[in-house]
């Protein structure tokens, strides 16, 4: 499912003609698409996927901004262990959850990230292989 | 939803630690034979997540570069376009 989503997103990236941008801009778009597809495929069940989608959809200039009063902000868990703090920063949405939940979310996030990397590597390998055929 | 309203048992934490350890790459598991301490696991998980983030960045760059070949009308570009359309 995530493969289909990502391939579709890639096909929307403009490569030439009006609206085409520099490769580094494209790379940023591809990166954003990768995280968005990963999160969308994981679904709203996971805190990390919800947090990732919120962050991506919150890009400046995109759509209406919710008035600040409506935005719920949970107080982040105070850190004791610097390693725990580091993990909370790396896992999207990890700041406010209890420790047990953080480990669960981290495990799921790692699994999905590794899958996304494998998917992108496969696409790069196929495309490079096709490029080298002559 | 700030909590489940009950104490988290040690077994639950241990189970999660084993589960997380199983997800780490093989070299990391070999380096740390047997059960890791919680702090070692956190450290390995953090560095693994960081390396995965770096790989996504790197692969995004490579994909962006490869897609410039789609600008041309070569047969290779057509095949790549077909890959993405299907």
UniProtKB/TrEMBL annotation, chain B:
Gene Ontology molecular function = protein dimerization activity
Is Aminoacyl-tRNA synthetase given among the entry's keywords? no
Which InterPro entries does the entry link to? Answer: bHLH_dom, PRE
Keywords annotated in UniProt: Transcription, Transcription regulation
Q: Does the keyword Cell cycle apply?
A: no
- Residues covered by the BHLH domain: 1-52
PANTHER family in the cross-refs: TRANSCRIPTION FACTOR PRE (PTHR46446), TRANSCRIPTION FACTOR PRE5 (PTHR46446:SF28)
Protein's name in the database = BHLH domain-containing protein
User: Which source organism does the UniProt entry give?
Assistant: Zingiber officinale
Phylogenetic placement of the source organism: Eukaryota, Viridiplantae, Streptophyta, Embryophyta, Tracheophyta
């Amino acid at each position: 499912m995530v493969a289909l989503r990502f391939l579709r997103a890639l096909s929307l990236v403009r490569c030439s003609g009006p609206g085409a941008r520099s490769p580094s801009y494209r790379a940023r778009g591809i990166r954003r698409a990768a995280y968005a597809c990963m999160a969308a495929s994981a679904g709203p069940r996971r805190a990390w996927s919800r947090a990732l989608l919120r962050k991506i959809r919150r890009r400046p200039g995109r759509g209406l901004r919710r008035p600040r009063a409506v935005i719920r902000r949970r107080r982040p868990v105070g850190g004791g262990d610097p390693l725990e703090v580091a993990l909370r920063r790396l896992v999207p949405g990890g700041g406010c959850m209890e420790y047990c939940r953080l480990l669960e979310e981290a495990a799921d996030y790692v699994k999905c990230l590794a899958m996304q990397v494998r998917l992108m590597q496969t696409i790069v390998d196929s495309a490079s292989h096709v490029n080298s055929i002559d | 939803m700030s909590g489940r309203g009950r104490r988290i048992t040690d077994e639950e934490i241990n189970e999660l630690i084993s589960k997380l350890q199983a997800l780490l790459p093989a070299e990391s598991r070999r380096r740390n034979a047997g059960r890791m301490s919680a702090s070692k696991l956190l450290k390995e998980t953090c560095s693994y997540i960081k390396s995965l983030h770096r790989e996504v960045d790197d692969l995004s760059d490579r994909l962006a570069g490869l897609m410039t070949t789609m600008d041309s009308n070569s047969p290779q570009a057509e095949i790549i376009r077909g890959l993405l359309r299907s």
